[in-house]
Structures are given as C-alpha cells and as structure tokens.
Amino acid sequence: MKKNLFLSAMLMAVSTLFFSCSNDEANITVKDGAITLEMPINVSDVVLNNFEGTATNVQSGEVTTLPTPVKNGDNYVITIPSLSEGRYNLTAKGNITFVKDGVAGTTDFEVNSNDVTISQKQAAVKLVVNSFKAEGGFVLSEICTTGTTTPQNKNYNYDAYFVITNNSDVVLYADSVALIESQYQSGSSGMQPWDPDVRPYAIPAGSVFMIPGNGTQHPVAPGESIVIANNAMDHRTVNENSYDLTSADFEVYLDNGGNSMDTDYDTPNLEYIWCYTNTIWIPSVQQNRSYAIARMKENKETFLANHSVTPTYTATTGKIMESKQVQIPNEWVLDAVNLGTEDDFGWYVISETLDAGFVAGRANSKDTTQRGTSIKRKKDSTGKYIDTNNSTNDLEARQVPSMKSQD
Q1: Is beta strand 333-341 parallel, antiparallel or unpaired with respect to 359-362?
Q2: Same domain, 126 and 227
Q3: Which end of the chain is more exposed for a tag (fewer CB within 10 A), N or C?
Q4: What are phi and psi of 375, to 5 degrees?
C-alpha cells in the first residue's frame, strides 16, 4: 500500500505586523511582527526541531536571524525583531518529526522565498512551510519462503527470510512493525464458511512477530531495508545451496521453555506476539498463505485480549472445526501480499482491499522448481517499488534471492 512521503514547501505572507515610523520617512521600521510557520496538514503530532531562519534585506544586504518559532495550535509562530521596510529574501530550515498512518517519521527541510515585501502597505506578511504531501512507507519488497535443495536433492526448509523496505523519501522508524502470516491457506481446500468471517475488518493471523522498540530506536533511511530471518545463521554450513543470514537485522525466535525446538542466534529477536506453534515456525514453503506488515498499536497483553477470536465451521461429517487465531485490524496494515498456486488459488484469505491479486510462487502442488527462489516487488522507472495493492501486477515470483551469495 502506497505510503510515500515528500516535502515541498513554499513561503507566503500571513500575520498582521505592527509597525512604527521613525522621523525619517525613508526609514520606516516594522517591528513586533508575527510570522506564522504553517505545519503539514495531513500528518499528526508534528514537531519542529533545529530551526534556523534568516531575513536578508535585498537593498542593504543586512541579514537578520529569525528567532525560534513557538508552537501555537497546529502551527508555529515567529516573533520577528525590528526590520526596516523593504524587500527581503526569507529562508527557513530545520527538521520535522511526525506521525503518518501510525508510523513515526522524520525529515529535514529547507525552504526559500525571495523578494518578499515587508512594508507599511504590505502589513500581511507570512512565512509558511506548507504542502507536505505524505504517500508511501514500508513495503514487503521480498519474500523468500521456498526453502532450498541440498546437493543430495533433499529439501531444506529453515532458511526463510523477509525484506521490509522504506519506500518513502523520509526516515521512518520500524519500531512496532509486525510481520504477519495468515492463518488460512489460499488453496481451495481451505475455503470454508468460517464464522465469524473477520476478513472485512481484520487479517486472520496465525503468526505475529513484532520489531521491538520505543518508537525511534530503529530508523530506516529512504530506500533502505530491514531483513528478517526465520533463523539468522549461515545456512551454507548445513546446505551449500542456501544463504548466509547472519547479517539479518532481526530473527524469529520462539522462547517456549522446554517445548521450544528453536535456536536463539546472535541476531536480535523479534518480539513474539502470537503463533500457532510452540516449537518452531516455518513460513509457507508451499507459498499458499498471505503475508503482511502492520503497525501494532497496542501492547501484547491488550492486543491479545481485544483481538482473539476462534472462528468455526461445521464439516460434512458434522464435526465443528476451529481456527485459533488473532486478528490484525485492516487499518493497522501497511502492506500485504497474497501467495498462491497457479492451478489452485481458491480464495482470498485476507480482504481484497489489502491485496486485490496474488502472486503464484509455483505452478501446482507437485512443483518444486520454485525452491531456491524468492518473490520480489517490481520497481518503476524512478527506482521506487510499485505498490498498487495488487500483487499480480506488483510482484514477480521465481527471482534470484537477494541474500544468495554471488561467489
């Protein structure tokens, strides 16, 4: 889902300025003026940091430093010192932190406006940082869950990884971003009359693992990525056809005491929120589940208390079948990708508003040629990842994994 951010700013005139005239009519002084510095209107919790501003008299070249703005409602106000009436080049730069769609972000800005008239007749003058347009954000740029094959032609299924990329033009923080695997499978056999059907408002999730942090611990620069490994080891030591995932930023680890078969490697762990298994999680090698990333807005305890439902359906045998799961509200979702098999995509296991298509990782249930490949998001001519909320158009299967050694 497209959440790309960029800052275009312009300087305009606002705020009534109070002025006084000296005895020299040619040297009118405007003083105690209030310049309104407008903040972006389509983001929340905006904070202005590290502000620097100047007013340069075009005629004399005299440079006046503008004082630090003071927050006033949604905007900031600069009380300017006395200025001689005339034409000025105004500059402002600094840093803005903000929240967009639940994601914390930050960006530097620098804006200029030349030949701004400050005079007795031009009493309405303003300096405004405006037109902040927010689009884009984090996307799932690569999904590698196919497993690999050993030189002895045996299957190896422990080397899955995911890549999350900042597809915007500003720094975003990955704190509290969760990796989600759907509870349901997209094959026709999984298409059952589950009651309740939570898909219109939430993702039925079987696994949820979250990037920890206080909100600003894990900055991701524009175009940069975070790699999440299922097991952050050098898998080539076990299977020479696999990948070295020791450089991953995070890994999945199920700490369930005596029941755990998982190994805790040196890479930082994702916070465990929920998983259908207590032993070891293996993402869908068959590539018949959906994956998503979402900004978690509640702590683990509150989330599990508020978003745990067990849908049921009645099988042909009359037996009541259950699906233990948690539900991720659709409005929390940052990006979602449906996976399926070409000859057996039975249904959309998440809302089609999140992903209107699917990417086929393999041709049929017996196809093993997808092993050792990954699914990658396409890029446009500008180098940005394409995200139209339709994975059929946006992603390509059977690509060379980015973590595969080129040696």
Answers
A1: parallel
A2: no
A3: C
A4: -100, 130
